[in-house]
Each structure stands twice: as structure tokens, then as C-alpha cells.
Amino acid sequence: MKVLRATASLRGLREQPLWRLLAALKAPVVVALLQWLYEDNIKSLPGSVLMERLSRELEDLRATGEDMPQTAQAYVADWLSEGWLTRRFPTGASEEEYELSAEALNAIRFILGVLKPRTMATESRLSLVIQQLSRLAEETDTNPTSRLEALRRERDKIDLAIAEVERSGVKPIPKARALERTREVIALAEELTGDFRSVRDEFDKLNRGLRQSIMEHDGNRGDVLEALFAGVDLIGDSPAGQTFNAFWRLLTDNEQAQTLLDSLETVVSRPFARDLTTHERKFLNGLTGALLDEGSGVHDVLQSFARSLKSFVQSREFLEHRRINGLLKSATSAAIANKDAVRANQAIEYSLELTSSTLKSVSQSTLYDPAERMSDTSMAQAEPSELTLDVISDLVRQSEIDFRTLKQHVRDMLDRKSQVSVGEVLDHFPAEQGLGSVVGYIALGAKHGEVTPGTETVSWGPDENNKRRAKVPAIYFIRERRHELMG
């Protein structure tokens, strides 16, 4: 019976993504591709980046004779269905992102462990087992006498260690043992970062399970609904949620985080750490940030699931889902009840109008031409307007005109001619302020020039094709009054 139970368990495990990946026909290529795509602790890849990188690698593999007939998009779709990749759409992202599933990550880690077996003694692992067992035995002992004896033995050991340091100095452990322990820590930390994805997947399954419980409950208010209406966070209070929350509190504790950071910096600065590989040193330096990033991602997912589940219930959206679920169940039950009475090919005298869609070839589509909807931007010619001195005075009071520059332009013209009109000044010096410059010249002429009967047509603008024109009073600046334009 034990063999039968073990066989049944292993058959169930064989259907899991981890085993399917290791047993896949193209397992060496698939594992190598997944490992390369997500190397250097890359957590996720945008869809466009993943497709571009995978397409390039597939071309290189085909060039060496590897049989990879499908496109990058087809392989990604297959890996999603197999459970080796997961697809998410983070809040605020412009496109979907792909990540390695927890089981694919475990499969890759297993393969790497086989490729790089332990060649050194496992003294550190044995020491860790002994320390943990000893600590467990002490912390579960309820006898005060034995507990005091253990504390006294620990105190005596500490006193001996202090005396030894005072007498002979510090004797660090051998370099080989230090490297072994460091690599054991790295292996444990890598497993720890990978466990975050398993926790997140557990939350995802729990969220779906709770929603299914709400959907399938036939009563008015089931246990799940009662708890949610009472404000209970079922996901956060689940065993997985409580375990993760405890770990998250430990990880975000300032004292513990500082201790971890100081210890990492100290270890990396030791002389033996120079024999670590570049990847190992990089992993140690970024361990704190990696743990916080992974934990923060799981924490966000946990909070999002809890909020969405409560919103699902409080918005009464679940009622519509339950109604649809009931209709589907009713239809299924009716079909099962009549499966023996009605043959599959029997005419039932009922016409069902199926929905359809109109299919068109891509060649029938026409490109959108923005020029077809461009509005007419040409400027119509306006009749010349007349500016009176009263209008000019109002415009001057309402605007900020650079009179200093305008006076300089008039003085320059009077150095060459005995008298000049506003139009002549505008012909030589462009109106930098547009209409404001024209108004400024007229205001100066009214105060420091000679106003004569009649009008004058002046023009200004960026070029000859976009000139603006107006009729202004005929005003002349004369050289005898040039001094009034100073300052």
C-alpha cells in the first residue's frame, strides 16, 4: 500500500510544471533559454523585450542546426500554458510583463545544482543542524533547573572564549571553511528569494479559491461572506498570510535590517571574499535590496488581493456572478438529465442563431491619412484697419512696449535723414513686438513728432507672404526734436 500511495503521489507530481519541464523533449534548450532570459536576477521582462530577446536567440539556435520551428510568440504561449511562465499586468505599466513561475525557477535551480555539485565538505551544514537542534531543545525545555544549567554552560563557554582572546588574540576560521560557509549562506538566500514567488502563487490560489467558495455557496450568506462582511481579511489571516506577515515584519525591522546590512558589508570586505566569484559577490552586495524588492512585491499582491476580494463582495458584484453560475449549473444539469433520452444526432426542432463576425483581409484596410482631415490654415486677407490716436493711447496704457529700443531706432533713422515717417522706420527696423511696436512708434510720434493731416499705410510681419497692414495717422519725426528721444 505504501508503494501504491507513493506511486499515486509521484504521478500527481509528474503532472506539475516542474516535472514537465525536466521531462520535456526540448528540455535542455528550454531550460537554457529561460535561464539566459532571466539571468542576473532579472525578476520580470516586458512582453516586447522578451519577444525581441527570444527571437534573437532562436535565430542563433537555428543557425547552429537546432530544430526550433515555432516563433517566439508561439513558444511564449506554450510556456504559459505549461506553467513555466506567468503573465501579469502591473498597475501603471504600459504592457504586460512575464516572469518565471516558482516551479520553473525550482527546476532551473535543481539543474544548476546538478551541474555544480558540492566539492567541499559540508561541515557548515552539519554545524547549522547541530546548532538549530540544540537551540530547539533549549527553547522547548520547561524545566527551570536544566535551563539554568544550559545558560551557565553557555556563560562559562563565553568566559573561556574571552580569556582565550585576551591571551592569544583572535584566531579566524580557515579560509576554505569561510568560503564554504559563505556559499552555504548564498545557497540559502537564493532559495529564500525563490520562495517569495511560491508564496505569491499561494496567495493567488487562495484568492481564486475564496472567490469560488463565494460563487458556489447556495445559501444566503456562507462562512466566507459572513467573514468578509464582518471586515475580516481572509487572505491576510490565512496561514500563508500570517507566515508572510511575520517574515515581512522581521525583514522590515530597522535593527534586524541594519544587522543584516552590516554583516554583509563586513563579510564582503574580508580577505577570503576575494576568492568568491563575481556573481557571488554581486549577489551578497544586493541581497538586502533583493529581499526587500521580492517581499515588497508579494506584500503588494497580498494587499491587492485582499482589497479586490472585499470590493468584489461589498459592491455586490458577486451576486451577478452567482446568478450566471447558477444558470450554467442549471443548463448543465438539464443536459445531463436528457443525455440518455436525446441522441447526439437527433433533430430537436430548435434553431440557435450563433453570433458571427465579418472577416476582412488586411489588404482591404486602408491606411489613415492625417492630411485628409487637416483644416484650412490659410490666412484670409483682412481689410486695412484705421488706428486713431485715442485707440493708440488706450493700447499703450494696456501693454508693455519696449520704448527704449523704439527711440533708438528713430534716432538712428534721424542720423541719416532730416525727417522720417512711422512707415519708413518700420521698413528699416522689423516690428519685434508686432502690433505693439507699431503702437509704440505712433505714441512716440504723437508726443515727440509732427502729426499731419491724412493717413499712412504701414506693414509689418515675419516675411513678405505674411505681412499685416494698417492705416495710421501721418506722423513724422524731425531731426530738430531728436533730443527729446534721448533716454
List the helices and strands and how they pair.
Blueprint: H1 2-14, H2 17-23, H3 27-37, E1 45-46, H4 47-63, H5 72-82, E2 85-88, E3 97-100, H6 102-115, H7 123-139, H8 144-168, H9 175-216, H10 223-229, H11 239-251, H12 254-269, H13 278-285, H14 287-314, H15 317-337, E4 385-386, H16 389-398, H17 403-416, E5 419-421, H18 422-428, H19 435-448, E6 450-460, E7 468-478
Parallel strand pairs: 4-7
Antiparallel strand pairs: 1-3, 2-3, 5-7, 6-7
Helix pairs in contact: 2-6, 6-9, 9-14, 9-15, 11-14, 16-19
What does this 3D model show about the protein?
This protein is of the alpha+beta class. The chain has three domains: 2-115, Arc Repressor Mutant, subunit A; 172-320, no CATH class; 385-485, no CATH class. It has 19 helices and seven strands. Strands 4, 5, 6 and 7 form a four-stranded mixed beta sheet that branches. The chain has a three-stranded antiparallel beta sheet with strand order 1-3-2. Strand 2 and strand 3 (97-100) form a beta hairpin. The chain is extended and about 120 Å long. The mean pLDDT is 76.
Beta strand %: 5-15%
The proportion of residues forming helix, as a percent range, comes to 55-70%
Shape: extended
- DSSP strand count: 7
How would you concisely characterize the structure shown here?
With 487 residues, the protein is an alpha+beta fold. Helices cover 61% and strands 8% of the residues. It contains 19 helices and seven strands.
